[in-house]
Amino acid sequence: MIVGVDVGTSVTKAVAFTMDGEVAAVEAHPTALGHPAPGQVEQDAEQVVTSVGNVLAGLGVQRPRAVGITGQGDGLWPLDAAGSPTAPAVSWMDGRAGEVVDAWMADGTFETLFRRTGNAPFPGAGAPLLAWLDRFRPGVLDRTATAAHCKDMVMQRLTGVRCTDPSDASNLFTDPRTGLRDHTLVDLCDLGHRADLLPPVADMPVGELQAAVGGLPAGLPVSAGPYDLPACAVGAGVARPGDGLLIIGTTLACEVQVDRLDLSGEPAGQTLLYGGPGGAGGWLRAMPAMTGTAALDWVLRLVGARHDELDGLLAQSPPGANGVRFLPYLSPGGERAPFVDPGVRGRLDGLELARTRADVVRAACEGLAFAARHCFEAAGLTGEVAACGGGTGSEAWLQVFADVLGRPLRVARGPEVGARGAALVAARRFGIELDESEWTRSTRWYEPGHDYEDGYRRYQADVTALRSSM
Predict the structure, then answer these.
(1) Which of 197, 242, 275, 317 has the fewest beta carbons under 10 Å from its own?
(2) Where do the domains of the chain lie?
(3) Which of residues 317 and 177 earns the better pLDDT score?
């Protein structure tokens, strides 16, 4: 077997895969998010490491051929030389660096960073968080040896290897053409004196367990990366330029494989170095919106509905939600894709006494689908779309996505597509032969039906009006 570990924002999961891609066992363990101040979101790195050991133990697999690790991207995980935390990790959901991003937008730093790296800084990204800590918590950085990413923290603790992979490095001062750090950008952000905190970049981060962990023996081969967005693309079989992946999770992540760099247009999203299925290479143009299922969860709580009622509620309200419209920008950090605006906030419009909770829920599902189309258009989608994530459990919502996107939607082989991608990458790195087409085959298809063009144009007009009013 091969084990894939996915260290998510609120849950760590491990999956044991047989050599033909079947799931033999799945184990999950929750991790907590801390909120020390309004708009701030932190995690305890020690708790995350413990969760990894717990899920590995829970699998009951004593000697897999390899372990592949992926996890949440962005954020900042400050570590000492031994890989232990020097302060709580700052989550990608954190909004404390909003003023840093605002200042960079005003003085041109934001534009320069995007045109040189293809990555638009947002408050929860590594660069503005590093700048914020340097300004307001310099003591934390003074005792820090590595400004790490989540999966790299886990890798260092398990194997002693201190490095990051090209996908996480893409988001932190890296030239996407060469894969090398651009230290002129570090200096541009007044962080030259902190450059030694950036971990080295390895094309294939690999190591061995230093000690037994979760029942797995010391010496077991371990690989790290890519982080969760590209890992899901690998696990879903996104293999051709123009093809896309829709991750319906906490964030509504939309990404498209591209074979040429285009850093024109409104600065937003991410450009990630990508080794796709078969190691095809190229880049992922990713638009990971801050909105996602968390926004739908909020609406369901608002109207007093359960998740298992979603399909029934969608059936009770027609396309267009009887005029109710929802702009799903509820994150305290604003939005990062397909535009960056730390101050943007959501709206629920078109309410009247005749409207029902089903109309509100449908408006939320349609608003999130419109946001996905907005992201895909910015990312350059021209091919097919695969889908994964918790939101794929709703048949009716998947149909809304297919309708709004106006193209067929295929559901990737699950469960845990990110862990599947991490396992596939581990197999490549350690020379384990697999049938990747079988590992990444689709399980369901949805054909577009209802025409949402008018609704999408209204959504675009609403977004433009909202941004101009902020």
Answers:
(1) 242
(2) 2-225, 238-470
(3) 317
